[in-house]
Each structure stands twice: as C-alpha cells, then as structure tokens.
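Protein modeling request. Please complete all fields; requests missing the sequence field cannot be processed.
Requester role: graduate student
Desired output: 3D structure, token encoding
Chains: 1
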Amino acid sequence: MISREQNELMTRIGPGSPAGKLLRNYWQPIALVDELGGPRPVRPVTVLGENYVLFRNANNQYGLLDRNCPHRGADLAYGRWEDGKLRCVFHGWLFDVEGKCLETPAEPQGSRLCDHIRQRSYPVVERSGILFAWLGAGEPSAFPHFDCFTAPSDYTFAFKGYWDCNWLQALEVGIDPAHASFLHRYFEDEDPAASYGKQFRGTPLDSDLPISKVLREFDRPEISVARTDYGMRLVTLRRIDDKVSHGRATHILFPQAFVIPMNAEMTITQWHVPVDDHGCYWYSIFTSFTTPVDRKTMREQRLKTYPAPDYKPIYNRSNQWGFDATEQRKATYTGMGFDINIHDQFACESPGRIADRTRENLGSSDKGIVLYRRLLVDAIQKTAKGEKTMMMLDDDAARAFTGPAAIDGIGPTGRWDEYWQEADAARRQRAPWAAKAA
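Delivered output (438 residues):
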C-alpha cells in the first residue's frame, strides 16, 4: 500500500509534473511510420499532456511542432500539406519540419516578419517502424543497441493500441508474470501450428507442450527479480516435474518499456506512452530471430481489435470489454474472447483511469511491481535535483546495451538460469541477422 501523494507523484505526467519531467528525458514513441503514409502525411499527436502536429516532408524527414500556430493559435493539424511544408489555413503562414516560418502571405510585400518567427520543434527519428520524439531539454540520449533496434527491417513489425487508463497501470501489467495463469487462461489448447502472431498459443522453446496448458496447470510460479543497468530482469519458473521446469525471462527497460517473449522465436518490446494522465498508447515492436515477419498477417490480426486510424479498441468499458458469461463458463477464464490484449486492457482499465493504489494489498507475486516503483520514485527524485538517471546514454554507453534475452522455454529443473542464457546464445547463433547486428 502506498500513500495518495506517492500515487500522484508516479502517475501525473503533465507539463511541470515530477514524473513528466522524468519521461521527457527519454525518447517517446509518438506514431507508427505507417500513419504518415498517403497523400497528406500530417497527424495530430497528443503525448505527455501536450498537443503537437507531426508531418513528413518530401525528403522523408519528419517534423514535430507545437500544434497551435504562433500567429493566433489556430490548430496546425488542419493545415495544408504543400510539398512537404505545412501551411496554416487561418492566414497562410507556412512552416518547414524544423519549425522555421517561410511565408506570412497576409503581410505587406517585403515584410520580414517571418524571419523572426519560429515554431517550437522537436527531434524525431524512425526506429523499426515507430517514430520517436525527444520532448525534453538538452542533447537527446543515444538509442541502446537492443534487438528491436538492431534487427533488419524485414525481421520487425510495429503496431500500437489505445488504453483508457493511466500509463503506469498499463506498464505494470507487464511486470506481473503471475497473472498469465489466470487472466489469459484458455480451457482448451489450440493447434500450435495455427498460433502464428498469437501470444500464449504456441509451444515453449525446446518443448512440444502447449504454453496454454503450462499456464493453466502450473499456476503458482516462483518469481525472482533483479535490478540491472537497464532496469530490471524477471525470471518466472513453473516446475513441471523433478526433471524440467517452464521459465520465462522478461525485462523492464527503464523508464517505461518491457521486453517479453511472444513465443520461442519472437520477442515483443512494448512501451506505454501517456497521452495524458488518463489514457495511453502501447507501442510494440515484434522482433523475429528466425524468418522475416509476416507483416500482413500480424497487421490484419491486430486491426480486427484495434482498427485504424486511431487504433482504439472495439471492446472497452462501454461494452464491458466484450464479456460473455457463457464463454466464461466454457472457454476462457475471463469470458472476454481470445485476444490477450483485451484481457490486459480490462485488467488495466477496470480499476479506473488512475488506479487508487492506497487500497492495494500486494503479495509476493507483485515483487517486480514493488521494485519498479522504487526505481521510478528514485529517478523522479533524482530528476528533481538535476541528476542523471538510468538509461540516459551517450553513444559509447548505448553500444554496451544489447539483447536483452527474452526467453520462454522448458529446461532442466535446478539450472534454468544457465538454460535461458544458453538458449539465447543458441537462438542468436541460428538467427540470420543477430551475429551481424552484434
């Protein structure tokens, strides 16, 4: 149980807020590259409680500007896209991707007003199908050499979805490995051959045992957590018998991402990015260690639940997350369908838009959440003092951060720590790209 004051400290992210100052010191996902396609590559963006306009120029460079025109505040997200520049429809002021004002056509001939106008702009870079923005002060941090950023384009796929809740409770579902045995429990196992693109429907590494059966029948995991240079590592063991145990090695990438195994050969790196205090988008990069990602299948699967253009779910609190009592009796633990994203969405949204953590009663299975909150509060306090925090990297430091090894497999009971490292090394040796990326 924590105090109301600490809950506010961790969750509020608007301009000037302590947690908001922290998160602005890190690259934030703001859009999928796919969203800037078409004849008008302009998108409104709201992140960390502030409004921006994102657009692409003719040279495939991206601009992120404050959304309100510096003339009289009209919304630039409705501006005209003209040869890679953005023109305000109120008085025709024209801006490039760096925020430089190029024309003020309503002014007298020869006016140099535009020479003195510059809209505030923010650096934007593309990584593995996601556009990241630097919203803080100072020199942007370097990107770590994690798998999701170093894998070739054909071996990654990016997607996103909106959840109607605070970013912290959305992130914390990924720091809670025990819930998978309940929230994601299926009463029947599917054919693993039909599991492509689906989590918890295939088989673990080095086994033909369906993962859904493992989670269903072994629901008291042993969880260990360890602080790392990048955040935190969690190892979750489910003892099958004296010879073998199922385990998952997952990671928190500070401040707001996690890396988990999707299946034996693919990982998910997922950020939870605040829109404001009451809503967030998750952004995922799926990274394959075997074959190029079937992006068409992956996209079609996810668009059924999180349709473009806003990627907001078809199931939500307004329709009870699709709850079906008959299904709950016969097919799934939740009665909310077979898409685990909806299960997680329910668990995160149903406590309210900002969960009241003063009423929690945490157990031993929540040890990862306890450690993460300590890391978060410590970083917020350091930021307030002007001190550097975890994962603020220069180029040399960034090169040292690789992996991390997110493994789902069945290995020898009693030596799973060795097993997951050996399994990761073997998977990298087989991967067409991993050795070259290293």
